[in-house]
Amino acid sequence: MRTLSVFNNVSLDGYFTDETSDMSWAHDQDPEWNEFIASNASGDAELVFGRKTYQMMANFWPTKEAAQAMPDVARGMNRMRKTVFSRTLKSAEWENSRVAQGDLASEVRKMKGEPGPGLLILGSGEIVAQLTMAGLVDAYQLVVVPIVLGNGRTMFEGVTGKPRLHLTRTRAFSNGNVVCWYERP
Fold first, then answer.
1. Measuring CA to CA, how many Å separate 121 from each of 5, 31, 32, 43, 91?
2. CA-CA distance, 17 to 25, in Å (whole number)?
3. Where are the beta strands (DSSP E) in 79-151?
4. Which of 42, 60, 137, 179 has the most CB atoms in a 10 Å sphere around its CB?
5. 3-state DSSP call for residue 94?
């Protein structure tokens, strides 16, 4: 069975986007950090997105600017399979993408049972919250960015039941970011 993981940046006060849905605050360029991100992108996963995050990513990663700024990451993002969950999109133009319009939890449960690489959610807070509630997220890789936003959106809005996670490791970077790996017990 494939695993479902989340990779997201969060501010010190727990937001993954600011009040305008901007996430540029999380992109502190630093050689050590860039190497870590490039290493993550060189792996194999099927990316899972909500419509908003998919469109944001699809508007950047296939561009010349992305290829020049972060060639390894751009190559990985474009190469990986992508599934976007949307009630409004009818097609997905970004390379190796498909649209899923069925019930989110049912579709992801089915995807987890299919052969293939692990599933990875980037951004997509509404998707993270729904799949956390459904008990389908196996692991969370959260990057704590040393910034206080004061307001924004958490990726766990609406989650009830207080799911408990187990910290499996951490890694601090010279830019102040700390990556925390959590698993569902």
1. 6, 24, 23, 14, 19
2. 9
3. 81-85, 97-100, 119-122, 139-145
4. 137
5. coil
Beta bridge partners of 46: 81, 119
180 domain-assigned = no
Please indicate, yes or no, if residue 116 is contained in any of the structural domains. Answer: yes
166-172: strand order across its sheet: 97-100, 81-85, 46-50, 119-122, 4-11, 139-145, 178-183, 166-172
pLDDT at 34: 83
- For residue 113, pLDDT over 90 is answered with yes
- 182 falls within a domain: no
Where does the pLDDT of residue 89 fall: very low under 50, low under 70, confident under 90, or very high at 90 and above?
very high
Q: Between 44 and 98, where is the model more confident?
A: 98
What stretch of H or E contains 22? none
Q: How many domains does the chain have?
A: 1
Question: Contact 74/66 with Cβ under 8 angstroms?
Answer: yes
For Cα atoms 33, 39, 40, give the angle at the middle one, nearest 5 degrees: 95
CATH of the domain at 27: 3.40.430.10
By residue range, what is the domain housing residue 30?
15-171
Query: Is 178 among the domain residues?
Result: no
- Pairing type for strands 166-172 and 139-145 reads unpaired
